Amino acid sequence: MIAVIQCASRKAADAGHLRTRDGRKVMFVADPVLAPPAEDFVFARPDDLSDTGESWRTVLRRYNANPDGNAHGLLPAWRLYGSPTYRKLAEHFGLDRLYILSAGWGLICAGFLTPNYDITFAATRREDHYKRRRRHDIWRDFRSLPVGTSQPILFFGGKGYVPLFCSLTAGSVGPRTVFYAGKEPTAPDCVLIRFGRPFTNWHYQCANAFVESTARLDPARVTPQQVRRE
């Protein structure tokens, strides 16, 4: 069984950054043009060209292939976000069966070294519009999940992330389960399970409930339906 959980806006205090050749930190956002002036960062989209002539996404892929001591101090995805739920899922599923659905980078494995970024699908205040990724924008998202996997896939995340989840897992063969709160989302070919009414960060409680259920029950017999919350 594979778990996928959406990313979070709150990052770890020691989150690292990719850097330009002259050493400046890069903060990845959805629209650098709208970003406020900053002396500490260079703003960029993940698919923008870096100062090496390659996209920052390509730079990050190569960095992960040859971390060379992890010179920039990037954290693996499961440690990048502030909530303890990511650690709990990593301990329960293992790093090889946990994936993060990142608004900035796509579907990445839990151990993928990931730089700090500030991108979201959620609605933002006007002054924060530079953070919001729009569905019609073109992104070359990572798709780390092996194509054709037959393992069941669970998704813990808000409705704004469901379309990307469906798109980036479309090549899987096994059943996909999407937990949701409130109004039923559109998720073709997925099993939908309601987890009560919408509330802030409900997906963390849902993921925690699943882990706790499997800890109490025989893991070979547990089903996603057992975490239903009305």
The structure class reads alpha/beta
Rg measurement, Å: 18 Å
Number of helices: 5
- Terminal residue distance: 24 Å
Biggest sheet layout: 7 strands, mixed
Beta-strand share of residues? 15-25%
Number of strands: 12
Overall mean pLDDT: 90
Instruction: Give the low-confidence spans.
Output: 216-222
Global geometry: globular
Description:
The chain has five helices and twelve strands. The chain has 230 residues and is of the alpha/beta class. Strand 10, helix 4 (162-168) and strand 11 form a beta-alpha-beta unit. It starts with a strand and ends in a 14-residue tail after the last helix. Residues 216-222 have low confidence and may be disordered.
Produce the secondary structure layout.
Blueprint (H helix, E strand, L loop, with lengths): L1 E5 L18 E5 L11 E4 L11 H10 L9 E2 H4 L4 H9 L4 E5 L3 E4 L3 E2 L2 E2 L23 E2 L9 E4 L5 H7 L7 E5 L10 E4 L7 H15 L14
What labels would you give this structure?
single chain, 230 residues, alpha/beta, seven-stranded mixed beta sheet, three-stranded parallel beta sheet, 20% helix
Brief sketch in words of this structure:
The protein is an alpha/beta fold. The protein has helices at residues 56-65, 77-80, 85-93, 162-168, 202-216; strands at residues 2-6, 25-29, 41-44, 75-76, 98-102, 106-109, 113-114, 117-118, 142-143, 153-156, 176-180, 191-194. Helix 3 (85-93) packs parallel to helix 5 (202-216).
